[in-house]
Design goal:
Blueprint (H helix, E strand, L loop, with lengths): L9 H19 L8 H21 L21 H5 L3 H5 L5 H30 L6 H22 L2 E2 L2 E2 L14 H31 L5
Antiparallel strand pairs: 1-2
Length: 212
């Protein structure tokens, strides 16, 4: 599978900061919390780390012996729809800056919804019946740590409230650890694919290609 990673530098992060700020104000009408260029670079690295982490996670003991290649996406977020603009949206000279910023704001909001969903899913799985907790939990905790760092440091929030919050349906795990692992791996593959989309979107936004 072809993966696009992006490298954040000060210039691209400065642009991303401007887009986030203007987009947030345009879509909500309220002030934006301070987000430094340093924090922007940190968030960019965290998104990249999350994608790389999934490569290791899918090859870890969590998915050991699981032959299914099924990809399951249960998040209610519309990340694919909002973060992959159509050709007409990208090339149309009639599209206003406000429309661009509205698209970016909606894309980022859905990315955070995805993170909230998988944060809940992974935490619930860790508490279920596991085949080998000593081997399964550490790599999942590592993934969970990256997700929670992204939610804490990179979400666009006002007055301390997380705008990405959504009602997440917690999976009902049974007593069969193999079936649980199989279901979990199917969802992890789905999030892996979604993370590729997220990294492409973040790279696109920070590059400023849509404004050329």
């Amino acid at each position: 599978m072809f993966i696009i990673l992006y490298r954040a530098d000060s210039a691209s992060c400065a642009l991303l900061l401007l887009l986030l700020t203007l987009g947030w104000r345009a879509s909500t009408g309220v002030p934006v919390p301070d987000l430094s260029t340093e924090k922007c670079e940190q968030c960019s690295l965290l998104f990249r780390s999350l994608l790389l982490n999934f490569t290791d996670l899918l090859n870890s003991s969590v998915c050991f012996g699981i032959t299914s290649n099924k990809v399951v996406l249960k998040s209610k977020a519309q990340t694919l729809l909002t973060c992959t603009p159509t050709l007409s949206q990208v090339t149309s000279v009639m599209m206003s800056s406000l429309s661009h910023l509205s698209w970016q704001s909606e894309c980022l909001r859905n990315i955070m919804k995805d993170l909230a969903h998988y944060d809940t899913v992974i935490q619930s799985y860790i508490k279920s019946s596991l085949r080998n907790p000593e081997e399964e939990v550490p790599p999942l905790n590592q993934t969970l740590g990256i997700i929670q760092s992204l939610r804490k440091n990179c979400a666009m929030m006002t007055n301390g409230e997380d705008d990405s919050a959504e009602e997440v349906t917690v999976p009902v795990w049974g007593s069969e650890s193999f079936i649980n692992r199989q279901d979990m791996c199917n969802m992890l593959r789905g999030f892996y694919v979604r993370t590729i989309t997220i990294n492409r979107a973040m790279g696109y936004i920070s590059s400023g290609d849509h404004r050329k």
